[in-house]
Structure formats: C-alpha cells, structure tokens
Amino acid sequence: MCLGVPGQIVAVGKDIHQLAQVDVCGVKRDVNIALICEGEPAELIGQWVLVHVGFAMSIINEEEAQATLEALMAMSVLEHEVGDFIGINAGADDAVR
Amino acid sequence: MQYVDEFRDPELAKTLLAHIRHKVSAIAKASERPLQLMEVCGGHTHAIYKFGIDQLLPPEIEFVHGPGCPVCVLPMGRIDGCIEIAERPEVIFCTYGDAMRVPGRNGSLLDAKRRGADVRIVYSPLDTLTFAEQNPDKQVVFFGLGFETTMPSTALTLQQAKRRGLTNFSIFCQHITIIPTLRSLLEQPDVRIDGFLAPGHVSMVIGTTPYGFIAEDFHKPLVVTGFEPLDILQALAMLVDQIHDGRCEVENQYKRIVSQQGNALARKALDDVFELKESSEWRGLGSIAGSGVQLTPAYREFDAELRFNTQEHQEVADDPLARCGDVLTGRCKPNDCPLFGTRCTPQNAFGALMVSSEGACAAYYQYRRGLA
Ligand code: SF4
Predict the structure, then answer these.
(1) Which DSSP state fits B354?
(2) Using a 6 Å CB cutoff, which residues line ligand 1?
(3) Is B233 left (phi over 0), alpha (psi -120 to 50) or beta?
(4) Domain assignment of residue B119, given as a range
(5) Does the UniProt entry include the keyword Heme (chain B) (predicted)?
(6) How far is A45 from chain B (nearest CA, A)?
(7) What Å distances lie between residue B120 and B85, B97, B302, CA to CA?
(8) Is the domain A5-81 a CATH 2.170.150.40 member?
C-alpha cells in the first residue's frame, strides 16, 4: 500500500484545492496537488510526479533520475573494461525483467 | 512507463550483481556467516520476491524482512475496534483494500462485510469525503492506516473535512511511525542486522536526516532505496561497499524522489493534524513508546473511537506457536514457523504477515513455496 506510480501533470485548476489531471500511462486521473504546490498550480504543468492514493506526493527530480542512470551506465562500462564478469547468474535476465 | 522501465534494465542489473558478488567476496565476516540486510519496507519485500532478487544474490547476503508493512503489524485488537464501528447500522466504513483480510478476534473486515456491515474499499481517502457528502444521514468512517507515506493524505483529507464543515465524517486512526521501532529493534541484544535498506516513500516525507542515529549511535550502514529492481540492486551495492570499506553512513539511492529534508508541505499538514501518542502496539513486536499518532485537540472531533465511544479492545495473545515477531526481526524465516502453509495460508491467514501482498510470509508463500 506504500507504492506509487509516476505520472505527468497535464491540467490544473485555479488553486491547490482543485484537483489536477495527471496522465498515468495514458490514463487521466484526478489528483490532489496540495503536497507539491508552493506557487502557482500552472507552473506544475508538464512536471512528472509520484502519485499515491490520489495525491501527488513528490515532484520527480529529472536530473537526479538521469544522474542515477548515468552512474549505473558508467559502472557498467567500467566493469566491462575490467572484465570482472565472473559467475554471473545465467537466470539474471529473466528474473529482473 | 517513464521512470519505471529504465530502472529494470537487465544489463545494468548484471553489472550491479557482478559488483555485489565481487565486493562481498572480499568481506571477511561474510564468509563466516551471511550478512543480514534488513529491507524495512513491505514494498521492498514484495519487489525482492517478485523480481527474484534474493535468488540472484550470492549466499553471503540474506534479507531480513522488516516491520515496515502497516498491515503486517496491525494488532488484532485494532481490527476488533474497526469491526465494532463498522457493524453499527448508521456507519459506512471505508478502508484501503490491504486491510480487509487481516484477522481479528471476530474475523476480518471482510467477514464483517459478509455479515452485512457496509464496508467499502477506497483507492483514496478523498473518496470518503464524497461518500460523506452524498450520505448526510450516515456516518462515514475512514480507516487511517499506515506510516508517513499515507499519513499526509489522511491529514489533508481531515483538513478538507474541517473546511467543509462535515459532521458525519471521522477517522479510525492507526497511523504509526517507523523510526522509534527501528530504534527499539536495534536495542534488542539478539537481533543481528548488518545494514538497512530504508523505505523510499516514508523517506520522501520525512527526509533522510531522521535515520542519522542508526549510523551514529548503532554503527550500521543505511541506504534509502527505491522500488525498482535496479534501485534495490544499486542500494545493495552501496550497502556492501559501506560494509567492505568499514563505513557506517546514511546514503540516498532514491534521489529522484527523496531529498535530505523531505516534503515540508506534507510535514506541516502532519503537525497540524497529528500528535505523538505515548505508546502503540505492534502485532508481533508488542508496545513501542512514541511509535504512533493520535489527532491533535483541533481535530479530535473527527476521532471515530471517541465519537462512537468504542471499548478498549484487549491485546489479543497470538498463538504461542506463531513466529510473526521472529520473522519481523530476522530471528527466523517464514517457513521456520510451524503454522506456515498449514494453519496459516493466504486463504486462511493466522498472522498478518500472511495477508498483505507486502508481508514476508505471503511473499514467501506465493513465490518460494516448494523451493527449499
Ligand atoms: S506463517 Fe503465519 S503465523 Fe507464522 S510467522 Fe508467518 S504470518 Fe505469522
């Protein structure tokens, strides 16, 4: 019950008491934005947020997301160079998909 | 789906696994006995089993499934209190679906519904305000359950109820907070945990600072972790690196969602609506000081237990054979419990760990039964 889904804000009302519309995987959902809106709701349009039980709980930090993935990719390149690939579980592909 | 699929890339997962294996093989103590890493949050427990992460790891790493699943630590007496209110003829009782099948002394909320109570599953607490407005002759009660992840939504719902002047709305408050419970866990002498994967969505609200004592006072490494396979593997790699280097720090793997200071707007709403309660009971763990909240005086009129003047429901002694508490603290695995798979199954659960899809016993039953 503590998981959330990412979605993109596509429409907002005039103030934070009006629900905003968030696109979650192509489905539009009405979402409360009072926990993420400090200024004008209109500034949120286009932002990615984490939606949980009808509330946008957090604005997804796109730069941090990118930085995490880049760090993983850099690590992958490095591991390949070192050739440090001993004993990788053959089932890994299927299981983590 | 954006922000999901990228974090499931199998190639990057292989890299992380190779890194973990390599590092763990150089940790001397791990060759004597496996490292015990506790994933505090039930969402992590579920993801670990669903994606088979536990089976990809070297034998030197063992997961301990922590107490961070609000349904799993829900005491029988609290369910009995919910049912007492739900069975009143004027009440519409609303709950998240996860709590429906948790057994109390007189069965579960689902059993109460079968007996004729108006029990409704809601996706969002906001739905309950609509019920209250549409049914002025009924009393609508929301079962507010969960950690800091779900607390802000309950708080905002109560603020709205107050603003709209709703007199037929109240909540049954079972919100609890994880930090005191982690401390009490670490104070127990025979609990042996080498590091923590900390809950990503609780941390989104409280930030990373409240975990400082785990590193400073108890000298355990901790990594705040997201819920996709790469998140969990990267956090494991970070933990293993810390153990390898002899460091004990609070690190944040889930920076795209969690900041050091957390969500200030959410915490402001929490301070308005909730205050700490002296102590709260956790199923399997007993009473823990300062681990639960109640409504502040300004919101006490919305407290369902006061409104309906419910009885004090006795703490109910669990079957002495049940090992829920030992599973929650890493003293044993689910299938070490004599009731596992016999008197306790997802269809007919004895303990709450068998009910929620985030509970260790349910996950074990669903994904690992038959594998020894
Ligand atoms: S199998 Fe059932 S009784 Fe045993 S520890 Fe798990 S939930 Fe508790």
Answers:
(1) G
(2) B 322-324, 327, 334, 337, 339-340, 344, 350-351, 353-354, 361
(3) alpha
(4) 76-177+263-308
(5) no
(6) 17
(7) 13, 9, 19
(8) no
pLDDT of residue B370: 62
β-bridge pairing B61-68 and B35-41: parallel
Q: Which amino acid is at B14?
A: K
Residue extents of the structural domains in chain A: 5-81
∠ CA B144-B147-B150, rounded to 5°? 55
**CATH number of the structural domain spanning residue B126:** 3.40.50.11740
B76 pLDDT above the threshold of 90: no
* Residue B191 falls in which region: left (phi positive, over 0), alpha (psi -120 to 50) or beta: beta
Q: Which of B1, B43, B153 sits opposite A3 (nearest CB)?
A: B43
How many structural domains compose chain B?
1
Quick one: how far is CA B80 from the chain centroid? 20
Highest mean pLDDT out of B80-84, B308-312, B331-335: B80-84
pTM for the full model? 0.90
How far apart are alpha carbons B116 and B132 in whole angstroms? Answer: 20
Q: How far is B6 from B146, CA to CA, in rounded Å?
A: 29
Which value does ipTM take for this structure? 0.86
b/e per residue B283-322 (b: at least 16 CB within 10 A): bbbeebebbbbbbeeebeebebbebbebeebeeeebeeeb
Are B17 and A65 inside 8 Å of each other by CB? no
